[in-house]
Amino acid sequence: MEQMDRMTDSVELIDFSANINPLGLPEGVKEAIRNSVDQFGIYPDPYCRKLTSALSQREGVPEEWILCGNGAADLIYRCVYALKPRKAVVLAPTFAEYEEALNMVSCQVVHYELQEKTGFQVEDGLLEILEEDLDIVFLCNPNNPTGQLIPKEFLSAVLQRCKALGIQLFVDECFNEFLDDPARYSVKEYLEEYDNLIILKAFTKIYAMAGIRLGHCITSNLALIKGIADTGQPWSVSAPAQIAGVRALEEQEYLTAARELIQQEREYLVSALRELGIAVISANANYIFMKSPELEPEPLHERLFKKGILIRNCENYHGLGPGYYRICIKQHGENVTLISALRAIVC
């Protein structure tokens, strides 16, 4: 687990490892949960009808294309269980849960290795490895942990090739709403034309609802929607999660304020990190992917931990090694604390 509740020297850690909206849980969501406590004594709607209706309005797609789940990870596993792929392609590095879910069904995983020399960007080589024996391709846009974006035009080419070869394309857009221009990189407009496309989204990051557990997937493939639904238990989305989700979708001012804060603080952090000689590889969403100078005898993350700061050490991602880190963008005071700690370490 990335987010840890740990103490060091009797001081609570400042957690830069989990990419959660720095504004925290919206006040409207807190109020909705408080006011609905009496509903928690009955079973939740297994079909999430109010939430699905609200999502349909928000996403601009039919209700029957949407399935809600107990967070994004729940839907990743359920999709894999429904499809039972024999061979899949995933990026390296990328979010680990795709491969972990694929391993549960003994699927052969082919890694498309992203290259440091090109900034870990997805390139045309991905198209070249798409063959008829593949069943599914997992892409994350923006990618986690690299933060790099895949242009919509390239995704369209991938989608067309997958369609021609009978390959399912799974696109994780959980961090899309943190982008300055989310629509520019979403493939939602292709859903009607391509029934081999499934999009994953979540309330976890953008609404700071990690502990509530709520995500949804969208596809025009109704047989796949039913298959994914059938792999889960009937009450996978709790009553508090459904209530919180409906209320969160009304928080437009919150989203605008979050994007403005993130854009401002991202500029501050990128500039400050580069002044310290830390290589910023990507900074597009609400997190920054970077490479630290070599430090001996203790690496950067251990030195920061002793100062009460937790960052994501990315060396355990397939395709990465020591020195790669991901930090989330937080409120200005916390970001200043991080830069001050880094300055004391690297200068």
From TrEMBL:
Is Lyase one of the keywords UniProt gives this record? yes
Q: Which organism is it from?
A: Sinanaerobacter chloroacetimidivorans
Which reactions fall under this protein's catalytic activity?
O-phospho-L-threonine + H(+) = (R)-1-aminopropan-2-yl phosphate + CO2
Q: Per its UniProt entry, which superkingdom is the organism in?
A: Bacteria
Key words of the record? Cobalamin biosynthesis, Lyase, Pyridoxal phosphate
Name of this protein: threonine-phosphate decarboxylase
The pathway entry for this protein reads as:
Cofactor biosynthesis; adenosylcobalamin biosynthesis
Q: Which Gene3D superfamilies match?
A: Aspartate Aminotransferase, domain 1 (3.90.1150.10), Type I PLP-dependent aspartate aminotransferase-like (Major domain) (3.40.640.10)
Q: Which residues form the Aminotransferase class I/classII large domain?
A: 12-336
